[in-house]
Design brief:
single chain; 5 helices
Length: 149
């Protein structure tokens, strides 16, 4: 017998999957910043924003893929996905990347704004941006990708 998960369980599972994807993205960002700038702090907005943006794109692409894989396996059951007539996993992955792009744009905006205004390390600004973007990312991706309400 199929028993659907409560909304609270899905929010928690989605949050954990997102957190793991974020940890992967944050690790890539930290390693990249240290490799390029030889420190976690960067010289300043004017000289480092393009480099940080490039690292963000790489890190978020990989981190979002990790979160998607976990959500496919844990948060949304096969019966929910197939029962809703959703297309292939690759199709859902593409839609999840697009849905997550909106949240990632918010993260990068917050990150670069904090770097420019108060010279806060992008590593820390990334965390602040993720907290700000989470509710929108959850709502958009669960509805747009998996058809869950």
């Amino acid at each position: 017998m199929f028993i659907p998960k409560s909304r609270a369980v899905k929010v928690l599972q989605f949050g954990l999957a997102s957190a793991l994807g974020f940890v992967v993205a944050e690790a890539i960002l930290i390693i990249g910043v240290i490799a390029i700038f030889r420190a976690v702090d960067v010289p300043g907005f004017a000289t480092s924003s393009r480099t940080i943006l490039g690292l963000d794109i790489l890190a978020f692409g990989i981190g979002v893929t990790v979160a998607f894989a976990i959500n496919e396996k844990v948060t949304f059951t096969r019966r929910e996905v197939v029962g809703n007539g959703k297309k292939s996993r690759i199709y859902r992955w593409g839609k999840y990347q697009v849905a997550s792009l909106f949240g990632n744009v918010i993260i990068v905006f917050v990150q670069l704004m904090l770097l420019g205004l108060i010279s806060l390390s992008p590593v820390i600004g990334n965390v602040a941006g993720a907290i700000v973007s989470y509710p929108m990312t959850y709502a958009l991706s669960t509805h747009f990708v998996w058809g869950s309400r």
